[in-house]
Fold this sequence. Notes:
Structural class: alpha/beta
Strand order of the largest sheet: 2-1-3-4-5-9
Number of strands: 11
Radius of gyration: 19 Å
Largest sheet: 6 strands, parallel
Amino acid sequence: xxxxxxxxxxGAGGLLGSHLVDCLVSKGYRNVFAVQREDCDLIDSxxxxxxxxLCAPRYVFHCAGRVYGVGGxxxxxxxxxxxxxxxxTNVIHAAAVTGVKKILVLGSGAVxxxxxxxxxxxxxxxxxxxxxxxxxxYAYSKRVALAMLQAYGHDxxxxxxxxxxxxxxxxxxxxxxxxxxxxxIEALVYKFLRAQRTGSKIxxxxxxxxxxxxxxxxxxxxxxxxxxxxxTGTINLGTGNLVSIRQVVELLTEITGVKSRIEWxxxxxxxxxxxxxxxxxxxxxxxxxxxxxYAGLSEYWRKVTSDMPM
Length: 310
C-alpha cells in the first residue's frame, strides 16, 4: 500500500475498525474512508456497490459484522448468520467487481472445528469438521466468507487475506454494553465497573477454567495493517499466550481494587474449554506482541473509568 492509495475500512465504528483507522492515520495514509453504519448500509447490495464506486478504494479492510459473546450467539443464531453472510457477500462482491486490488477480511477463531479443542488450530483445518456449537451460526457465516474469497480470488484475480483473529479486547467510546451478549472481557470490565459503583456481586459464566488467547486492540490493529501489506491467504492472528477466564478475573480484581464477591455461574454456557492457534505463519513474519494482558487491561480500565465518571 502507498500512502496515497484510497483505503476503505468497514466497521470503522467498532472496536477493531476504530483503532485501525487511528493506526492508518498515524502511519500517514491520506485517503482513508472510515465506513460506519450511517454511511453505508452493508446489507443493501446496491448501496454497497454505489459506495464502492464512489470511493474507488484500492484496498479494503473488512471489519464489519454482527458479533456477539456466547450468550448473544446462542440467542440470535438466525440473525447472526443472515446478517454476516449478507454483509460479507455484498462487500466481497463489490470489491471484486469494482477493481479493488486487495481485501483483508476479519475472521474468527470460531471457524475452527470443535475437534481442535485440545490442540493449536492450523489454518488448513478450517473446513475439517463442524465448529463448536456455542458459536456455530457465526462460525458458518465466517466460513462462507472464506469460501467466497477463494472463489473470487480465482475468477477476478482479487488478492485477499483472511485473518483468523483471536479474542481482541480494548476500549472504544460506547455506552455500557448489553452484558448478556458482549464478548467476555468487555462484559467483565463493565461488571467490575458496576460493582465498584453499586457494590453488586460479579457474575461470571462457567467455572473460570476456559482458556483463551487475548490480544490488545491497539497492537492488533498495527498487526493487521502489516498483514495487508505482507500476507496473502489465511493466517492466524494471536499472541500464543493462553490464560484462563479465572486468571482474567483475578487480574481485574487486582487492577480495579474491586472486592465484590465473584459468583461463578456454572449453569450458564461459557463456550469452548480451550481455543488456541498455530502461529507459525505469523511468527515467520516477525510479529511479537508487546502488551501483556495486565498492561492492556490496566489501560482499558483507566479509559473506561475516565470516560464514565461517577
